[in-house]
Every structure is written in structure tokens, then in C-alpha cells.
Design goal:
binds ligand T4K; Aspartate Aminotransferase, domain 2; 14 strands; 7-stranded mixed β-sheet; 384 residues; alpha/beta; single chain
Length: 384
């Protein structure tokens, strides 16, 4: 327990946690079930290329989300790249700077310019008015990100896209299992992209998917995922290799059965952090709308004092073996590939810069010890 600053590891005391607590510790379902599925896979000798486990996984995900098509991929970034191409995006595409760098890279990698629009500091999601301001004659699309699993302003963005004839895609990497207005994330815009990376609330080791209700788009994405093959020797579309392998689908099927346990654990952790941090001045936990489904995967704390204060808390936490993160500092526009492209982007991105300087993401998930939120809050109390 921590009763004074002298009890902190940065002041020479033993770390509060003997083992490191990670953000993004993988949640793993029933191992026996996974090993059984892998055993059957070995017996079949069918390891990749649209095998039966991938087909079943796609159906289960589509049913869970209430969406017509799920096209499983090897990771979320390739799924983004394929969705972007299948939608015919070119020229400039508007995205938030405040996102994981993959959203920007998926465009830049394909010769498309990511144009960064500012966020709403209350939600950390794209500000529709800021998106409007960034539209030019070269703009072909918008990619909204449901950051921390909290829905982007889907209807306002759809209205802008309709008005200007733009494609609308959502990066739903954080939002598997989340809903908006009673509808699961997955069927907004023309398509949405999921990530099932190991650090995500639900994982397939590595993995991702394009989900959509659009038959034609689904067919194009399927072709692109497998070199454009429409049967043996018959290539009818340019494509790449974005396929999910069977062993990943086995993990996905296992973890789908475990999803409610993960949401339960995350929710409990989130509530425990909320109670423990409530009395500490200068820090605030970002809440969720409990009338919606959430996965509670990101425990996001804002530090009112800004970057110096935030970094001091991080240093203290790391000394205690709490490996909290400052996602998504400093914003894509300040990372080298984009800083060189847009040296003055910060002028337009005031809220992005403010939020990026204040933020700490705390560990959660099924492996977090029950006493951790309270102990972590005590560390923070004696740092602020
Ligand atoms: N769009 C958005 C909005 C995204 O957030 C992401 C991915 C994507 C698109 C792209 O999807 P993918 O192509 O990745 O499917 C991690 C993840 O690699 C990345 O998937 C994720 N977003 C991002 C938010 O976080 P890093 O660079 O922070 O990873 P790393 O290696 O620092 O790991 C994070 C923490 O998890 C560490 O504390 C260690 C722990 N960890 C990690 C792994 C892999 C474990 O305990 N066990 C593990 O197996 O990017």
C-alpha cells in the first residue's frame, strides 16, 4: 500500500507490482477449445485460403454485428488498405490525426494524401465542422475512427459525405462489440474495418476484417484479398494477399465464445478505476455511454495539467511496473512522414494537440488483478 510519496518506487521503494502490467494484454478464451480446433485443422490439412474455420468465423462475426458481409483479413491495416481501394478513394482523404498511425499509413502507402481534421475534445472523435473545412476539389473520402470504441459522429459525417459525393469508411479497429443508437458498429458508412490484433479486446493473434452491407463492395474486397482470383487460374481483378489463416480463425472462434467474460472484466475494471480516481484532483476518466454496448477496452485518463504533469505520472507509473501508454501522442501530423508532408498542420489541430498532451491509457483486461485499479490510483494520488 501507498500512504505517502516515500512509498513510491521513484523514491526508492519496492515497485507496487512485481510483474509488469501491460496495456493491451491479450484476452485468451478456452485453451482446450482452441487446441481442439487446431487439431482438427491439422487433420484436414487445410491451413489457409478460405478454409472452413475462416468461413465459420466470418459468419459468426457478421451475425454478431448484424451486418451482411464479413471479409476476414490477416490484419486491420491490410483490411483498411483493401477497403480504401475497393471504395475507389484517391487524391485526398480526410481522417483524424488523433488515431493509431495505421489509419494514415493505409492511405499514404497507396499514394493517397491523408488530410488531418481536428477532433472534438469532449469525445476525442472527428469534429464534423473541422471535416467540412478540410474538403477540397481533390477530396474523395472520409475515414472516421471510432476512437476508444466510442462511436464517431456517424450521421453528421454521412451527411457531409452525401452532400459532397464522398466515400465514407469507418476505422472500427477499437469498436468491435460496441453499438450506436441500438445498432452495432459495423454497418455505418459504406464499410467498416475491424482489427483483431493481440492487443485488442477480442483477438485472432493478428487479424482484421472489412464488414459491409454492400454486396458489390464485399465481392471486390474478397477478390482483392486473394490476388483477384475468381476460381482456378482466373484472375479478374488486381489484388494482394490479405487472407486470414485458419489458426487465427480458430483463435477467433474460441474468443467469440469468451467475449462476454472480457466485456464483464473490462467493465468491472473501468468502474473500479472510476471509483478509485474519483477523489483525485487534476485527473479525469473518460466515461462511456452505458445505454450503448461498449467493450470498455480503453481506460482513458485525462491529466488537466498537460504534458509535463502527464509525463510525470507516466514515469511514476512505469517505475511501479504499470506500463501505461500515451496513445496516440503526438498525433499522426507530428510523426515524421506526415510532419514533413504538412509542416504547419498543428495550426488546424489545436484540440488534437491538447488532448494528445493530456492522455494516459491504463491497463485493463481479464488478467488485471482485482486490487490493481485502487493501487494505481494511489500511485497517481501521490504524484499529482
Ligand atoms: N486503426 C486503429 C485505430 C488502430 O488502433 C489499429 C491498431 C489499426 C488501425 C491497425 O490494426 P492492425 O493492423 O494492428 O490489426 C498496438 C497494436 O499493435 C495495434 O494493433 C493497435 N492498433 C495499437 C493501438 O496498439 P503498439 O505499437 O502500441 O504495440 P506494442 O507492441 O507496444 O504492444 C502494446 C502493449 O501490449 C504492450 O504493453 C505489450 C502488450 N502486449 C502486446 C502483444 C503483441 C502483450 O502483452 N502481449 C502481446 O502479445 O500497437
Amino acid at each position: 500500500t501507498i500512504h505517502s510519496p516515500a512509498d513510491l518506487a521513484i523514491n526508492g521503494a519496492e515497485p507496487a507490482f512485481a510483474e509488469p502490467l501491460h496495456v493491451g494484454r491479450p484476452n485468451i478464451g478456452d485453451r482446450a477449445q482452441f487446441l481442439r480446433l487446431v487439431g482438427e485443422m491439422f487433420d484436414r490439412r487445410w491451413l489457409s485460403n478460405n478454409g472452413p474455420l475462416v468461413v465459420e468465423f466470418e459468419k459468426r462475426v457478421a451475425d454478431y454485428l448484424g451486418v451482411k458481409h464479413c471479409i476476414a483479413m490477416c490484419n486491420g491495416t491490410i483490411a483498411l488498405e483493401i477497403a480504401i481501394r475497393a471504395l475507389g478513394m484517391t487524391g485526398e482523404v480526410i481522417i483524424p490525426s488523433y488515431t493509431f498511425v495505421a489509419t494514415a499509413h493505409a492511405l499514404h502507402w497507396q499514394g493517397i494524401t491523408p488530410v488531418f481534421a481536428d477532433i472534438d475534445p469532449a469525445t476525442h472523435n472527428l469534429d464534423p465542422a473541422a471535416v467540412q473545412r478540410m474538403i477540397t476539389s481533390r477530396t474523395t473520402g472520409i475515414i472516421g475512427v471510432h476512437l476508444w470504441g466510442r462511436p464517431a459522429p456517424v450521421y453528421a459525417l454521412q451527411a457531409i459525405a452525401d452532400e459532397h459525393g464522398l466515400q465514407l469508411l469507418f476505422d472500427a479497429a477499437h469498436a468491435f462489440g460496441c453499438s450506436h443508437g441500438g445498432k452495432m458498429i459495423g454497418s455505418f458508412g459504406r464499410a467498416e474495418v475491424l482489427s483483431f490484433h493481440a492487443t485488442k479486446f477480442f483477438n485472432t493473434f493478428e487479424g482484421g476484417a472489412v464488414v459491409t452491407n454492400d454486396d458489390e463492395l464485399a465481392q471486390t474486397a474478397r477478390l482483392m484479398r486473394n490476388f483477384g482470383f475468381a476460381g482456378f487460374d482466373n484472375v479478374i481483378h488486381p489484388g494482394t494477399n490479405g487472407k486470414m489463416v485458419e489458426v487465427c480463425a480458430a483463435m477467433g472462434l474460441t474468443n467469440l465464445d469468451y467475449i462476454d467474460n472480457v466485456i464483464g472484466a473490462n467493465r468491472q475494471n473501468h468502474e473500479a478505476y472510476g471509483r478509485a480516481l474519483a477523489g483525485i484532483s487534476g485527473v479525469r476518466l473518460l466515461g462511456f455511454d452505458d445505454s450503448q454496448c461498449n467493450n470498455y477496452q480503453y481506460v482513458v485518463m485525462e491529466v488537466a495539467g498537460g504534458s509535463e504533469c502527464r509525463d510525470a505520472i507516466l514515469t511514476t507509473l512505469h517505475a511501479e511496473n504499470v506500463l501505461a501508454r500515451k496513445y496516440f501522442w503526438p498525433g499522426c501530423h507530428r510523426m515524421k512522414p506526415y510532419r514533413d508532408l504538412f509542416p504547419n498542420a498543428g495550426v488546424m489541430l489545436k484540440c488534437t494537440e491538447m488532448v494528445a498532451d493530456r492522455l494516459i491509457v491504463l491497463p485493463t483486461g481479464t488478467t488485471l488483478p482485482e486490487y490493481a485499479p485502487e493501487l494505481i490510483a494511489e500511485v497517481i494520488r501521490y504524484t499529482t
